[in-house]
Amino acid sequence: MSRWCACLTADDPAGQVAAMGGRPVRTRDGRHALGLLDGPGAASGPYRVGDVYAIGEVTLHNAPELRSRLGADGTGGAPADCSDGELLLRAYVRFGTAGLAAADGMFALAIAERDELVLVRDHMGARTLFHARAGTGDRAAWAASTSLRALQRWPALATGLHLPAVRSFLTFAYLPGRETLLRGIHEVRPGRCVRLKPDGSSVEETYWEPAEVTDERPAAEHARELRELLESATARRLPTAEPVGVLLSGGVDSSLVTALAAKLHDQAVRSYSISFGGDAPNELAYSGLVAAHCHTEHQVLTVPGEAVAARLPETVALLDSPVGDPLTVPNLMLAEAVAADGMSVVLNGEGGDPVFGGPKNLPMLIHELHRDEAGVDSRARAYVDSYRKCHGDLPVLLTPGVLAELADAPPVTELLAPYLSQGRMTSLLNQLLHTNLRTKGAHHILTKVERITASQGLEGRAPLFDRAVVDHAFRVPPRLKLAGTSEKWILKEAVRDLLPPTIVDRPKSGMRVPVQQWLDGPLRELGHDLLLGSSARARGLFREDTIRSWLRREGTLLPRQGGKLWLVLTLELWLRSFEVGA
């Protein structure tokens, strides 16, 4: 298990890779160096095609189709036994970015090509990729890695806390674009190819982006095609000759993936659900119903608050960028259970909401009908407000010094405006889904799943984020995705015969996590020690009086301090793990 790093510099590139903790595995023309890092990941390489070299974390779900497109070996094709990484490189060398677009999978690739270092991230963002520049002009140097910690160790880079990213995290509970919490380090966005040049400049190319297509076929035809695509996406993600795990919450998305896996796989299918014990709300009746209906080997994992408190710091430390999701520790414990059962692949139902029209879209559409102020900025502000995180509290949460430093920073709505304007999408619902896909999908859902499953030697695979499924979703007329108040209508119709009506037609409730109980109980001491401790005070981000007030549950008739405190606590743990000061 490993991750990778790469450098483009005239100043000992192999030495720079070693300084980041990497083992140089290939140097080229005195300017490029590629290396492998210890740590959870799927990195391999180097791969070579002619005089082009690459290293990457690459899992392809359509390798046979890509190999067929390349043709037979000896005519520019690929050897039958070549790795997924070499196959992707061959597609790039042969077809350019069109070869990347034709791939389907999870990948982050660095290519040493001529005098450039080319970085490629998969269509949806299942694997993360970061880069940084030190120096300018003929003294410029580039470094890239799938590990943020490796770039933080790069001696040539003078980094530190990036305050605008702090504001973004407190607004969204994740970082929705190129920014990271470390100054000078940027994330490659999904579906992009970034060319880093020796003069310190860079060029970003988009090789894939979902596009709205008018397709007024009858609903039954859309449902039938979607069903075929879902079956294909699930089949391609099933492991060969071994059991597969499925994370089963009992909602329609995870249930349909469970049902398709049970239908299509020739090995055992094992499903996993979580309970928070005691009188905490759960959906075990629904997940149990699906497991019985699909004849899976079902396991319920109980996650007590004490386990969350004990394991939260190590879980947060696994993430290259923090995610303010209280399910992170339960997700890790589920991954451990799947790995303990000897499996290498675990499927999940992530993707249904951002791709097919889950919660939050209806309130946004209603807001659009009644808003007084026209324009994209107003729509973006409403989208930010819909998160109901800490954005409205920033004037009383952040210290005056931090607020002053942020006064001239671009507003967080700029991160959303490209997706919420009349561009690739004309329908407001499709604009919202595009926003969800490119922000929460890429920078929260997929990255969290990838890092947590990789830590246990697993691959977490999401059939609903399949490229062809997503393409089809933006061909489906909006009225078939959100039919009146029925969310994800076309997705439900496509799988109605697979599942009990109770599952298909139930309204989405989401996993109700007892955050406030944890903060009042097993997390109480940790929360007070961290948020009011000397390290947090020295960093000077938060006003102590506001933190104390939230810890005492003061403020409103229906307090939401639990969710807000969770964000602040997650951020503090992440900053400590990465040893980031003010």
Briefly summarize what is shown.
This protein has 582 residues and is of the alpha+beta class.
Could you explain how this protein is built, in words?
The protein has 582 residues and is α+β, with helices and mostly antiparallel strands. The protein has 27 helices and 19 strands. The strands form four sheets. The chain has a six-stranded antiparallel beta sheet. The chain has a six-stranded antiparallel beta sheet with strand order 4-5-6-7-11-12. It has a five-stranded parallel beta sheet with strand order 15-14-13-16-17, with helices on both faces. The longest helix has 27 residues, at 428-454. The two termini are 33 Å apart.
Radius of gyration over all CA atoms, rounded: 23 Å
Average pLDDT taken over every residue: 92
Structural class comes to alpha+beta
Oligomer: single chain
What global shape is seen?
globular
Low-confidence stretches: none
Give the end-to-end Cα distance, rounded to a whole number of Å.
33 Å
The major beta sheet can be summarized as:
6 strands, antiparallel
Order of strands, main sheet, comes to 2-3-1-9-8-10
Quick one: how many beta strands? Answer: 19
Strand content: 15-25%
Helix content: 40-55%
Instruction: Count every helix, treating DSSP H or I runs of 4 or more residues as helices.
Output: 27
